Amino acid sequence: MTINAQNKFDKTSINQIERIHKPQVDEFRKKIFSSRKPVIITGTVTDWKSYSLWSIEYLNNVVGNKETNVNISQNKIFTFDPQAQFTITSKKMNFTDFTDWIAQKKTTNEYYYLQQSSIKTSFPELLPDIEVPDYIEQKLFIIANLWIGTGGNISPLHYDMSENFLCQLRGRKRVLLFEPNQTSLLYPFPAHSKIPHMSQLNIDQIDIDKFPKFQKAKYIDCMLEPGEMLFIPAFWWHQVYSLDQLNIAINFWWKTNFKEYLKPNGRRLVSQIPRLIWQNIKNFAGL
Ligand SMILES: O=C(O)CCC(=O)C(=O)O
What we know:
Oligomer: single chain
Distance between the termini: 36 Å
CATH topology: Jelly Rolls
Strand order of the largest sheet: 1-2-11-8-13-6-5-3-4
Shape: globular
Radius of gyration: 18 Å
Number of strands: 13
Structural class: alpha+beta
CATH class: Mainly Beta
Bound molecules: 2-oxoglutaric acid
Largest sheet: 9 strands, mixed
Strand content: 25-35%
Number of domains: 1
């Protein structure tokens, strides 16, 4: 698979993301977290049950053939449609039909991604295999989501208002990260729109005449390997490319400190918070 974004624009001052092996909880909370920079933590996910157990066969056995909601794309970019009330097209599919599709036992002319699916709500049978990393204070924990897909899927450029651990179990992900101070170069949808946390850019096919400032954007380019977890601080922009035939990740979101909302990317969302919370409740509850 080719990813066109490679080497097209400047990198940030942090050229290479730091990898830290199994930091102590205190080291994470006091030093790494407060630096407000992404890091990759190694040696933690590899201890998890989900890391040793989750093959397609195992998931088929535990989850069975139940109906599951998967997102659909014609071009592997799984994006919100700004015209369509904050939705991504999705459809209900039996879990084993979805995993058969991943294993290339079935072909279709559209692409699927089980994207950001609450494990507690949609896959409670997998909860015994999950542990919330100790780095997250229990009272701040929000949700653990499941992501299952295949190489080529793209989650386009956006930021979230929560702290995030993206934990890779199978396959790799290439992640481009842009500091919050790059926002003016990334052409977010307007603050009053339904998707103020998303960029209007398709960064693999930039229309430079329309979006000239993007040429100055700096970013971190990293490859997240299976068994690694990426700390994405709240309000950092990220675009994520799935690689490899089977790609499974869990992400954990937890509440950020209120002072982050006083910074520009936070302020852009403040007036949207009640609507975004309601939207999340609807999504997670499948309303
Ligand atoms: O893994 C992906 O495709 C996207 C992950 C993501 O956007 C997130 O964890 O916030």
